[in-house]
């Protein structure tokens, strides 16, 4: 039997460094020897080892059974090894004893220092905390076996951070060690904490970590003003504008430095207001009322600043508030005129005549100069110029007839300007309400279209009418309805005033027939209760229709019939015939006018045009033939020979000729008669002329005149005694004119 069956073998790691024998050139350490009762020392038994670490960590001498470890063991990696041993017959390799199992336990030594796995630490503690206030707990761990010896028993100590903080040796809790630590003096501390095993004894291993402790703020400092304040503001500063900003100093931060401001005394309690700026904690002073240098030139305020969040623990330190004096000086500026009332309300009747005085506005110069004021109306608010204003007195009067139904209220802006400084302009509002008069008669509320069934019974209501009136009487509208005198005696319809601003139209008889009469006109008189009372006549059309059993109109004819006060059917037919005749005549006239306005098509073979010849120099004009076509100067005989009209409208083109044709001179106006007869013959034989009379217009000057020709083209053919030889003495620029018009020999002109 093996002597190691089911036993535990302890191996102390500190023994590995001892001098040990070597097996197969490997450094080994003796663990234990195995021995079988069968082994008599004859060498017939050999020992075999198997299990965890067999052959790699643990080896056995097969002859003696000695077990050795071939490498250093680490308990933190593996604390136990389970092995199996067996004795075999060396020659038959058969077991001589059953297999035995044993456990090797690695015994711990202190080879691991404590470690702060969560370090370094940061923590905070309120300033002014009492001694012993917990800050943070640090924890160190030791990988050694806590069940064996003191290798894993750790104690804590503080290496840096005294005398402000301390640490509990067993728990690692850091606490404050001094009272009244002030954040405003020092707000951060760096601590070094040590953890040592072996209960802190000599030879123990240690580890350290750092702890950063920040003092958090508490409201232990009151606000303090460091000065009094002096400000200057112009009297023209608008209301709600910022006048100044003040600030009380507070060493605290965040909510502990928040403060409120209020005015507790002074002569500007109603003029100014102070409120905190939530971002900067400044006291913002704003203007509440309009400043006036002439009334008051300076103000003194006493303003208090109070901490908003007071800590009761520090009330004994004193009041958490302070006050400051603020002096505000008003600076004089040139102000625009001020109206005695910003809005002046006036009333005028819409029946007011032109020039009627409505009311007066008044403004004054607030400055000490008291400049005279001139008034005017902003015409952008009175585009139609209904009103005028006296520039000196401010009296407003009507300039046009007013109509309340068009505009019941006029909102106009009045300018008040200083005479000495026109740039200083004040503005006021005049609200002019136009009072109503009864100047509109009532009329039908809508355009009524009344249908009457042929089977209507006498006394049947066929229409209920109402009226509207743009006037607005103070007591409300009251309308009266009646038939006109000429319609009151008709035998078909009657009218009943319902006394509620409506009236009902009723039939007087039955038996209406469309074929006999399909349309009736009933004139109705509507009057109002105004003073004076106004009325109007409104005509109600009543159409006779064929109705279904439910009384719904199916078909209605369009033949009109007038009540006894109207026209007969024959008269209406005659009127319609006249109207149609007039329409036909108008259409014919319009057609003729349009056809006359259509342009004629000019004869493509005619070369008739106007030419404007422009000369920009004094000489060479007659020789410049590039700017115009000389063909335009040929006589009308040539033009007439090649005429072929293609007119299609009653008009013919107007021909212009630069010179008259060479017709023979006849007494009186014979040349014109000959010209006209020639044109008439041409038109009569022209196959393209329209087959109706047309107006022919020609531009023909004729030939010969008492004043003779004024054209320079025939200047040389006249017997003028004028001598132009002196043009030769005027220089080269007039030489051409001298050659053309002078009497020197050899002067010729060619066209």
TrEMBL record:
Gene3D superfamilies to which the protein is assigned, alphabetical: Cadherins, TCF3-CBD (Catenin binding domain)
Q: Where is the Cadherin domain?
A: 28-116, 117-225, 225-339, 340-444, 444-561
Report a single Gene Ontology molecular function.
calcium ion binding
Gene Ontology BP terms: adherens junction organization; calcium-dependent cell-cell adhesion via plasma membrane cell adhesion molecules; cell migration; cell morphogenesis; cell-cell adhesion mediated by cadherin; cell-cell junction assembly; homophilic cell adhesion via plasma membrane adhesion molecules; morphogenesis of an epithelium
The entry's cellular-component GO terms read:
adherens junction; catenin complex
Q: Which UniProt keywords apply?
A: Calcium, Cell adhesion, Cell junction, Cell membrane, Glycoprotein, Membrane, Metal-binding, Repeat, Signal, Transmembrane, Transmembrane helix
Where are the membrane-spanning stretches?
561-590
Q: Does the keyword Cell membrane apply?
A: yes
Task: Give the location in the cell.
Answer: Cell junction, Adherens junction; Cell membrane
Which membrane topology describes this protein?
A: Single-pass type I membrane protein
Chief localization? other
Instruction: Name the Pfam families on file.
Output: CADH_Y-type_LIR, Cadherin
Could you tell me which PROSITE patterns the record lists for this protein? CADHERIN_1, CADHERIN_2
What's its job?
Cadherins are calcium-dependent cell adhesion proteins.
Indicate what this protein is called per its UniProt record.
Cadherin 7a
Write down the species: Scleropages formosus
